[in-house]
Amino acid sequence: MNQDNKNVWPSALSLMLVGIQFVLIGMIAFTGPLWPSGWSLRAILGVGGVVGLWALQAMGLRQVKVFPEVSGQGTLIVLGPYRWVRHPMYTSVLLVTLAWMLGNPLPYRILLWVGLVMTLSVKLRYEERLLMERFPEYEAYRLQTKRLIPFVW
């Protein structure tokens, strides 16, 4: 796929992964409380929200997209939360949905969340491959910055 075009169309893989991602998020959101009881779950929800907003601010609304393809106008962001993790938006989604799932931790909701983790793992690997093709400096950034959890993974 030509990454130099201004408008890059999502691949079939991207469409599938994003579709699965949104179905899983929706199923988790609509089968339990959106405002979990207990301060610890609310703290997880809050941290997830703050990380997401911080990532949006660092990236700028012009670069925000749900598909992993990199537009020709895209730039590599390494500031803000991207200084600590390569995919803070994914971290945000996982934290928010974790809080929702733990608010009503039924077995099928746990499986939905695990499915979301697996889907986002595949999506971020695909996205990283595209980022390495588009930005030669991404490899050095990748080697010094964790994927989703600062100092861990």
Give short descriptive properties of this protein.
153 residues; mainly alpha
Largest pleated sheet: none
What is the chain-wise order of helices and strands? HHHHH
What is the CA–CA distance across the termini? 29 Å
Share of helix among residues?
A: 55-70%
Helix count?
A: 5
DSSP summary, beta strand count = 0
The fraction of residues in strands falls at under 5%
Would you mind describing this structure in some detail?
The chain has a domain of 104 residues. The N terminus is likely disordered. Helix content is 58%, strand content 0%. With 153 residues, it is an all-alpha fold. Helix 1 runs antiparallel to helix 4.
Question: How is this structure best summarized?
Answer:
This protein is mainly alpha-helical. The protein has five helices and no strands.
Helix-strand layout with pairing:
Blueprint: H1 12-29, H2 39-59, H3 88-102, H4 107-134, H5 138-144
Helix pairs in contact: 1-4, 2-3, 3-4
